[in-house]
Amino acid sequence: QGRLVESGGGLVQAGESLTLSCKTSGIILSTFWGATMRWYRQAPGKERELVASLSSEVFYEDSVKGRFTISKDNAKRAIYLQMNNLNPDDTGVYYCNINNYWGQGTRVTVYS
After folding, report:
1. Distance CA 72, CA 64 (A)
2. For burial by CB atoms within 10 Å, which of 19, 39, 44, 103 has the most?
C-alpha cells in the first residue's frame, strides 16, 4: 500500500522561499517512474487546486509560474516543490499526489 508524507511547510514572510518534500513508500519503482506527480494546495475556504504536475510534461498554475519548480528524485522516490518569492496568496495546505495516493498535507502560511 502506497504512502506519501509531505514535509517542509511553515510560516514565512512574503518574499521568502520554502521547499516542500513528499517522501513515498510502498510504491514500486516502475510505478513511480511512470506516474504523474502532482502538488495541490487548498487555501482557507477554497477548494483544492492543482499547483504543479510532472510527467512527460510540466504544468504550473498561472499564479506560480516562474516562482515554483516541481521535481522528483527517482532514486529516493521523492517529489519536491521549490517555492520562491512566496506571497500571502500562496497560503494553504499543500498535498502531493501520485496516482490514487495522497499525503496528509503540509501547511504553508505566508504573511506580509
Report:
1. 18
2. 39
